[in-house]
């Protein structure tokens, strides 16, 4: 608190009350410094006493470095505490000060870690080499799983709709019609994303059926694609071909939606990024499995060698 502000508060406090008051100046490390009684009348003497008291307070603040002034108003008088540290002031200052590390120190730290890693990679002990590579691969696997969690889109509550029932004759007709048509929607490495559903609706504007070609497709993944596209497009699966082709029917009472790309799907760029992380995770998991097998074989070889060494007859010199 500044001295001028303290003076204004004291004068307003004295003028508003008629009882005599005392202005006390207290230091945190010492006893009572001075006591001045101020009455309401006469006003000129009161101001002289106030100015004298404030100047003595200013001298105390100057003498005590890094000290704070605290004023409290009670019924008995006005109290000033000089040298009392504010709570949490130093802690706040420490948080704001960031430890600035020089560029040279950072480079030296990186160089140290590189040399440490190179030493483990070139170690004559195969166990050290395998454990180092295994730990590195497991850290990468955890990092990839964390990255893939960001691409998880919360599914919107599915709208209640009554799927149309088709007879065998209608299904056969739609199947033959869909096979003859040349228009199709590709599902590539990105998988099912918003653009695939959008293209299906654009084809259904002029045609009853549409073919969805899934390439590349893993064994069993074609059924997952069919279920996901049925949920997103509200279409009907007519047939799933052995060459990973799905024929979809739009329905008898089809109405093109206003938003053809569902909100709970990824964009084209995000879908590609997710695919890259999935591929990396798959290769990393295979590499971890390979290293674990190598480590297990090494331990077996080590146990066999130590057993043979124990059973071998000792040659006396």
UniProtKB/TrEMBL annotation:
Keywords: Coiled coil, RNA-binding. PROSITE patterns: CRM (PS51295). The keyword Cytoplasm does not apply. The keyword Transferase does not apply. Residues 281-308 form a coiled coil. It comes from the Eukaryota. Transmembrane segments: none annotated. GO terms for molecular function: RNA binding. Signal peptide: none annotated. Residues 164-261 form the CRM domain. It holds the Pfam family CRS1_YhbY. This is CRM domain-containing protein. It comes from Tagetes erecta.
């Amino acid at each position: 608190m500044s001295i001028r502000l303290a003076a204004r508060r004291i004068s307003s406090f004295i003028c508003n009350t008629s009882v005599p008051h005392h202005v006390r100046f207290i230091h945190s490390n010492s006893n009572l410094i001075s006591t001045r009684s101020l009455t309401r009348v006469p006003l000129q003497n009161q101001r002289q006493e106030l100015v004298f008291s404030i100047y003595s307070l200013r001298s105390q603040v100057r003498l005590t470095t890094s000290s704070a002034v605290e004023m409290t108003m009670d019924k008995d008088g006005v109290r000033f505490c000089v040298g009392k540290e504010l709570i949490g002031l130093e802690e706040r200052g420490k948080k704001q000060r960031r430890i600035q590390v020089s560029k040279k120190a950072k480079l030296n730290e990186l160089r140290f870690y590189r040399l440490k890693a190179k030493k483990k990679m070139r170690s004559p002990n195969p166990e050290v080499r395998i454990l180092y590579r295994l730990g590195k691969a497991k850290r990468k696997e955890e990092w990839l799983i964390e990255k893939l969690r960001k691409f998880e889109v919360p599914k919107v509550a599915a709208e209640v709709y009554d799927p149309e029932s088709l007879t065998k004759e209608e299904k056969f007709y739609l199947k033959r019609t869909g096979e003859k048509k040349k228009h199709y929607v590709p599902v590539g490495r990105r998988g099912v994303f918003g653009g695939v559903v959008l293209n299906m609706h654009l084809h259904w504007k002029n045609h009853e059926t549409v073919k969805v070609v899934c390439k590349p497709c893993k064994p069993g993944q074609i059924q997952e694609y069919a279920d996901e596209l049925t949920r997103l497009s509200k279409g009907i699966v007519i047939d799933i071909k052995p060459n990973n082709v799905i024929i979809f029917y739009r329905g008898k009472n089809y109405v093109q939606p206003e938003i053809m790309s569902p909100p709970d799907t990824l964009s084209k760029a995000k879908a590609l990024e997710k695919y890259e992380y999935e591929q990396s995770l798959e290769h990393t998991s295979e590499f971890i499995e390979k290293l674990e097998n190598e480590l297990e074989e090494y331990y077996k070889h080590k146990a066999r060698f130590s057993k043979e060494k124990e059973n071998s007859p000792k040659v006396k010199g």
